């Protein structure tokens, strides 16, 4: 009989972890949390490197940092036509200044050359990763999957991935808990990552463990993944390191090993799964779920029709392993969904900037989810409006016209 992996510690829920000396201002909670991701030090670094880049390229004026807002055309924000609304940003920054910042924005020191192309988003990327891990203890059940930072231009580093809402762009491997990006790594189509390669694991398996090992010790974690990542060797290795794992597998054959369970599940089509944390026999291995009758186009419709009859929905027992996978696997997709509602990305002709916008979105979403856990934010849009207001309210001095 297969023995599921037993954690040393109990499963737990997610928990925000604010700095000890951090003072949360209730009226400006959104900005207070966001400022931990985009700290004053990070902003000053961006200002300095942007000004250096602008000076090298003979910009007419100095530059500063600016918020990023989504609109069909940037110039529409500054139009004084009565058909257009008035935006507070126009009271603190001219259109020319905004366009200068957008044109010369630079995160890294352009005077220092690096062989690593992703250095263009340093030191911000390292700060976002580190602070995301410091401020949040993820729940025990996480998902690991690919994310895409949209970019349709020409770059040797981009990927094209089928069945993704954004099929082309920069690929980012992310470990998420209900939309919160706990840690991630940028991947390149032509550059090898500098991670440690694990014996008996392929490159993909080593990348998975590179993220998983960043989870805090003395806590129980289960990692859910799809068949792109799953393998017997990876699951065995994760089990040896104290992590549970469950996911789909791209083999339609049964494989028997002592510490990884492989089984075939008939859904709308046959699906093979691997797990180290579930059983498929015994009364506690199944759970009753209210299922909707499959559509007629389903490849398995004829077989399931005998189960449903004329009923649209029916309570059917399914394996706990399958139910857990369906419930926990989409935690990266939640991050993509939140990102898609109010993406900050602008049309721009520098190939690294989509990664900056992805980092900005990640900081905003992680900030929102922390505030939601602290019960100081409920609605996503309201959080964004509050953040925008707090970002610009200290700069509401009317512009002086220049001649």
UniProtKB/TrEMBL annotation:
Keyword terms: Membrane, Transmembrane, Transmembrane helix
Parts of the chain that traverse the membrane: 351-371
InterPro entries: PGBD
Keyword Transferase: no
Domain PiggyBac transposable element-derived protein, chain residue ranges per copy: 31-368
Amino-acid biosynthesis keyword on record: no
Record protein name field: 24728_t:CDS:1
Organism: Cetraspora pellucida
